[in-house]
Each structure stands twice: as C-alpha cells, then as structure tokens.
Specification:
Strand order of the largest sheet: 1-2-3-4-5-6-7-8
Number of helices: 12
GO cellular component, one term: cytosol
Structural class: alpha/beta
Largest sheet: 8 strands, parallel, barrel
Radius of gyration: 19 Å
Bound molecules: flavin-adenine dinucleotide
Cofactor: FAD
Shape: globular
Keywords: FAD, Flavoprotein, NADP, Oxidoreductase
Family: Belongs to the methylenetetrahydrofolate reductase family.
Protein name: MTHFR SAM-binding regulatory domain-containing protein
Helix content: 40-55%
Distance between the termini: 26 Å
C-alpha cells in the first residue's frame, strides 16, 4: 500500500511512523525485530509505517534491505504495516539505485524516501555521527567502495524524477523537508523553492528534519502551503534520550534548540533518567501542540534511534492506544468541523 493511501484512510485521525536503522550484528537485528513487534502491537495503536534508513553512498545497502525484508516477514506487516525505505543518491550510481528499487518491488516495499545524502567533502566524508542516525544524515562507511560509474544524481530531486520516470508511478515517494533551512541552502525561500521542485518532480509526501521549536515549525508549514505544496507533511520527532547524545545530534544536523529547553535541561543534564523523562514530556507536549495548531498535521514520524521505551511512553501519554481509538475519531471529526473542512 502507498503511504499516502494509508494517511488518507486515517481521515484526520492521528497516525505515526517509526524510523529504525539497520543493526550491525545478527543479535542486534533479532533484538530490534522484537522491539518492532512490541511497538507495533496492542495496546498501542499500530504505526502506519516503519522506515528503514540507508547509509550514504549505499554503505548499509545490504543491511537496510535485510531489515526491510525481515520487517516485511512480520505477521503484522501483511497488508497493514507499510515499509518506507530511505534511499540516498549521492555517490550512488544508477545500477545501485536500480538494484535497491528492484529488491523493494520484490519485497512489496512501495514507499521510498528519496534523499540526496551527504556528498564527500574534499577527499573525506563528513565524520560519522556515532550510532547510525539518519534524520541527521547518519553515515556508516562499512563496505563503501567509491563508484566508478558516472554520477547520475546530484540532488534528491534527480532521484525523485528518476523513480517516477523509470518505475512509472509504482512507488510512493517521499522527500525530506527542513523547518530550519538545510545547511546548504542560501535562504529560507530557496530551501522551500527546492522543496517545491522535489514535489513537482513527483514526490508524494514530506518527512521533516527534527526540530524543537513548534511555533517555528507551524510558521514553516504555513510558508510551505503558501508556496503551493499540498502533499502530506509528517514532522520528525526525536525524543531526547540523554543530554550528550541530544547535543551531539542536534549540533550535527544544525537543529536549533530553544532557550527554554536548554535551560530546563541544564539542571538535570547529569541525571540520564530525568533527561529521558523530560524528553518524553517534551515530545508529548510538542505533538499535542502541533496537532492542535490547525495546520492540517495529524501524524508524526518518530526518529526512534532503535529505542523503545520513550516512544512507547509518548504514545501512552498521547493516548494513541487502541482503547482510545473512538475518542480520536470523534476529535478528528471535531477538528475538521472547526477548520471548516
Ligand atoms: P536535497 O533535497 O537535494 O537538498 C540538499 C540541498 O540542496 C538543500 O540546500 C536544497 O535547498 C538544495 N537543492 C536541492 N535541489 C537543488 C537544485 N536543483 N539546485 C540547487 N540546489 C538544490 N541521510 C542518509 O544518509 N540516510 C538516511 O537514511 C537519511 N534519512 C533522512 C530522513 C529525513 C526525514 C531527513 C530530513 C534527512 C535524512 N537524511 C538521511 C539526511 C539527508 O541525506 C541530508 O540532510 C542531506 O544533506 C540532504 O538531503 P536532501 O534529500 O534533503 O537533499
């Protein structure tokens, strides 16, 4: 199923997606599959999709496709749980892209998040950010061989156009959006201009880079809509797991952190459990605020970092559980009436 059809089927009711990166070992894979099984089971509302990250240059190609294949095998996946494969195009030849897409079709993976990835800077790639992370441009250099083949793709837009042309609409394609402009963008306007180009090239949905400034995000959504971009936008939410990783990851992806969050964290930063609790409360209140903002956002994309507890608590706090399903349907109807739909 296409992600956009799954979103439409929710008719404004809240939905979520989870992002996972491919573990390096068979034990890691088995543990992650257990977590995915638990996170996609009652009493939690099931996610509409699970996404699998891709190391820039295809460095995790085998493991990413293996993880997608294992998720596709889960009982839950049949017909209900969609898979989104992230696919970067920088330093990836056409052959590698074709192989990945062919494999996706064999697995029934119909959703691709088409990304540029981060190109080599001078002779070196940017340093890897530690654990595989993707919203952050995470890279894993294992097995990476520079491609001899001529570069076919420069920007994500080239990959979107290529998938649309070569696969004749079979894939539902998403692209990345940046509530704080991408570091390579000259201005916020040019950032939105190139986002619009990606949508014109054939993208069907947008998943955003993580952010902690909800007002800034809401303003960005309004500017994106004013630019004529009308595809679903799914905000990227990363629960804070511990202070050091939060600061490292937000620095890496140039995600500004509001002053009030920094000062709240300052007094508890040495206490990992307190930071985690704070992260759960912060994500919960951010999501409530985003949905209440009246800009047509009803779902979120959790950057899980392959961890289970925080997202589980956030879903419980939000009451995104099966026993509250009818409340959500009623609230979605009320929101639609308030917003004049
Ligand atoms: P693009 O859309 O190509 O944009 C890159 C820059 O170029 C922007 O400044 C843009 O404004 C500009 N630009 C775009 N088109 C043009 C054009 N035609 N002419 C001139 N300038 C242009 N990285 C990974 O390696 N693996 C992952 O799995 C991964 N997952 C991600 C998931 C999400 C939700 C997000 C937000 C990011 C993810 N990333 C991942 C990181 C991403 O690869 C980097 O942020 C990368 O630097 C940019 O990718 P992009 O697709 O946004 O690039």
């Amino acid at each position: 199923m296409r992600l956009t059809d799954a979103i439409q089927a929710r008719a404004g009711e809240p939905y979520h997606t989870f992002e996972f990166f491919p573990p390096r070992t068979p034990e890691g894979l088995a543990n992650l599959l257990d977590r995915i099984q638990r996170l996609t089971s009652a009493p939690l509302s099931p996610p509409i999709a699970v996404s699998v990250t891709w190391g820039a240059g295809g460095s995790t190609a085998t493991r990413s496709l293996e993880l997608a294949a294992e998720i596709a095998k889960l009982e839950l996946a049949r017909g209900k749980l969609q898979i989104i494969l992230h696919l970067t195009c920088t330093n990836m030849g056409k052959k590698m892209v074709d192989e990945a897409l062919k494999k996706c079709k064999e697995l029934g993976v119909q959703n691709i998040l088409a990304l540029r990835g981060d190109p080599p800077r001078k002779e070196e790639y940017r340093p890897a950010p530690g654990p595989d992370t993707s919203l952050l441009g995470g890279q894993d250099m294992e097995g990476l061989e520079p491609e001899e083949e001529e570069q076919e793709f420069e920007f994500a837009e080239d990959l979107v156009r290529y998938i649309d042309r070569e696969w004749k609409g079979w894939f539902c394609v998403g692209v990345a959006g940046y509530p704080t402009p991408h570091v390579d963008s000259d201005t916020p306007e040019s950032d939105i201009h190139f986002l619009a180009q990606k949508v014109h090239a054939g993208a069907h949905f947008i998943i955003t880079q993580l952010f902690y400034d909800v007002d800034g995000f809401v303003e960005w959504v309004k500017r994106v809509r004013a630019a004529g971009i009308d595809v679903p936008i799914i905000p990227g939410i990363m629960p804070i797991q511990n202070y050091a990783s939060f600061r490292r990851l937000t620095n890496l992806c140039k995600c500004p952190v509001p002053e009030h969050v920094l000062s709240d964290l300052d007094s508890i930063k040495a206490d990992d459990a307190a930071v985690k609790r704070y992260g759960i409360e912060l994500s919960t209140s951010m999501i409530n605020k985003i949905i209440a903002a009246g800009v047509g956002i009803s779902g979120v994309h959790f950057c899980t970092l392959n961890l289970e507890k925080s997202v589980r608590r956030i879903l419980e706090n939000l009451r995104w559980t099966l026993d509250h399903k009818s409340d959500h349907a009623r609230q979605a109807r009320n929101r639609a009436i308030e917003q004049g739909h």
